[in-house]
Amino acid sequence: MAFASGYFKTSYRGDLTIVETKTRWVALILLLGGLTAYPLVASPFLLDLANQVLIALIGAIALMLLTGFAGQISLGHAGLIAAGAFTTAILFREVHAPIWITLPASGVMGGILGIVFGLPSLRLKGLYLALSTLALHFIVIYAGAEYETKRGFATGIVVDPPQIGPFILEQATSWYFFLLVMSLGTVVFALNLLRSRTGRAWMAIRDRDVAAAAFGIKVGRYKLYAFVVCSVLTSMAGCLFAYYQGFVSVEAFSLMMTIEYIAMIIIGGLGSILGAILGTLFVVVLPYGIDAVVDHLSIPSRLTTYMFAVKHSTFGLIMILFLVLEPTGLAGLWIRVRDYFLLWPFKYKPAGG
Amino acid sequence: MQIVVNIVVLASLYCLICCGYVLIYRASRVLNLAHGEMRTLGGYFLFTVILAGAGSPIASLAIALVLSLLLGFAVYFFLMRFLTGESVLAAVLVTVALGIFLRGLITLGWTSQSWHPLERMHVENATIYLFGNAAISTFGLAAVVSVVVVYAVLFGFLKFTRWGLRMRAVGEKPLLAAQRGIDLHWYYALAWAISAFTGGLAGIIMACDSGLYPNMVVIALSAFPVVLVGGLDSLVGVIPGAFVVAAVQVAAITISPQASEVAPFVVLLGMLLVRPWGLFGTKEEWERV
């Protein structure tokens, strides 16, 4: 069977495995093969779309770790991406730093911001992290805008394609493979983190902080840790974003961007890495889907100015529907459908599964 | 003198916006991130009522305010009711989604162009000169007056009426309140409705003072520092919070307009580090096991 139909884990080792059955190994290898072959068959448009998904995926997984697993709300995701992007752009403009300096530097920048803005959440529970990250967003954007005007890049900062060893990342195909490696690395990192003490501590805090404290988990420290991991990953995604766009400007990092990331993890399903992947795919592809529908229906061009608003309200509506009707998101839907066929003709998994 | 007047007007607007946040937070521990959009809708309601030709300015104002009140009830009964008892995280995320949904609807319904309800109403926003030659616009004055009225009524309502008492009980211990026979849904809905009403009032005043445009939503964001400085669950705290933030903003505008936008958030961060529960808020202690 491709999936275990019950709970067959009899050892701690078995409990920790990520890939459970042999069939899943086969499926995983097929998936990797498919992902490698993708650029050969995809049109330039589809390839660009895939690259956008892969960049967004890193940020979405970071936010999923924070919100989906540690249960903290962040409203500063766009600010963190901006922090990474601006660190990259400034280092590139001022000292012509290569990517192997800017990428870690963005990570460090994210880490510092994570500690400074995560500190308030150490002292109190509740929504304080959300408010302090909102402050982070505005302060980072302000700093970026000040840099732009002071240094005379009023319209934005141009960043040249990065060079990794002998390769210059200019072609969409080379970008695809680079980003694929980065995103898969992030996925593996997240999955690995979640089966460790840290991941379990986060989930315990999310489910009931008082009980977690009773188990000896330093609640404040692990909350801060979650936020720092999230900000480091997000800032690094921001660095890649800067290189991929080749252009950094504060206008790109609006609160709408934060909301898109929140939409990704909600639609995908809070508390699931698979959810982060599905949600990212959905949210990045949805606007193009709406465009395609509009083209197909040949709606008068007069109305295309409303497209932006249509996308806004569609996002909002889908998020609301998922939160109210299906809080486990796309990942939950998939698991439900899978279990239906897996357990047929029975309805429920045995206890513990 | 002019500076003092500017600060007072801005602080009054903040007070009107923020008591909405505090009411909902106190009743249900939910931070309504869609408050900015709900408030902006108040302004658009007024505009639509005027376009529909509802007689005198006073009548259109009243209709717009009633619409705002109904909006609050609608949001609770059609949306937030399903999240009562769920985690606060889910409820807050729903308000984020609601915000973006309403913002889309605003642009769809009224386009992103700016409108001026006052011109349609043929009412002039006359400048009034106070002592010391300080100028204040009519609607600036209206903001100050309505803050005084709204706060007096709210305090009276919460302190002395049966409904106010029940609302406080619901906010403090929902389980006990429900066991005493208090209908939780009704009081949560009431909190949402009053919040939408005061927010709508702020939206209407701002729309009359400086016109309507979808980006009006942004001022609701710089209202977060106000509630935080005062304390998220303290209605009294909003007033000093509003004055602090307004003063900082007016001072920062001498540096640059951008600095004035970011200044409230610097205040917020400082407050979070020093006294995260705010000037008048109650400190949420760790519950010991």
Please describe the topology of this protein.
The complex is a heterodimer of chains A (353) and B (289).
Chain A: H1 12-16, H2 22-41, H3 44-69, H4 77-95, H5 99-123, H6 128-150, E1 157-158, E2 163-164, E3 167-168, H7 172-194, H8 197-207, H9 209-214, H10 219-245, E4 247-248, H11 255-268, H12 273-297, H13 307-325, H14 329-343
Antiparallel strand pairs in A: 1-4, 2-3
Helix pairs in contact in A: 3-7, 3-10, 3-11, 3-12, 4-5, 4-6, 4-10, 5-6, 5-10, 8-10, 11-12, 11-13, 11-14, 12-14
Chain B: H1 2-28, H2 35-51, H3 57-78, H4 88-110, H5 117-121, E1 127-129, E2 135-137, H6 138-160, H7 162-172, H8 174-179, H9 184-210, H10 218-221, H11 224-230, H12 238-252, H13 257-274
Antiparallel strand pairs in B: 1-2
Helix pairs in contact in B: 1-6, 1-7, 1-9, 1-12, 2-3, 2-4, 2-9, 3-9, 6-7, 6-9, 7-9, 11-12, 11-13, 12-13
Key terms:
heterodimer; A: mainly alpha; two-stranded antiparallel sheet; globular; B: 289 residues; mainly alpha
Report on this structure.
The complex is a heterodimer of chains A (353) and B (289). Helices cover 73% and strands 2% of the residues of chain A. Chain A has helices at 12-16, 22-41, 44-69, 77-95, 99-123, 128-150, 172-194, 197-207, 209-214, 219-245, 255-268, 273-297, 307-325, 329-343, and strands at 157-158, 163-164, 167-168, 247-248. In chain A, the strands form two sheets. In chain A, strands 1-4 form a two-stranded antiparallel ribbon. In chain A, helix 3 packs parallel to helix 7 (172-194), helix 11 (255-268) packs across helix 12 (273-297) and helix 12 (273-297) packs across helix 14. Chain A is globular, with a radius of gyration of 21 Å. In chain B, strand 1 and strand 2 (135-137) form a beta hairpin. With 289 residues, chain B is mainly alpha-helical. In chain B, strands 1-2 form a two-stranded antiparallel ribbon. Chain B has 13 helices and two strands. Chain B is globular, with a radius of gyration of 19 Å. The longest helix of chain B is centred in the N-terminal third of the chain and has 27 residues, at 2-28. The interface between A and B is large, with 50 and 49 residues.
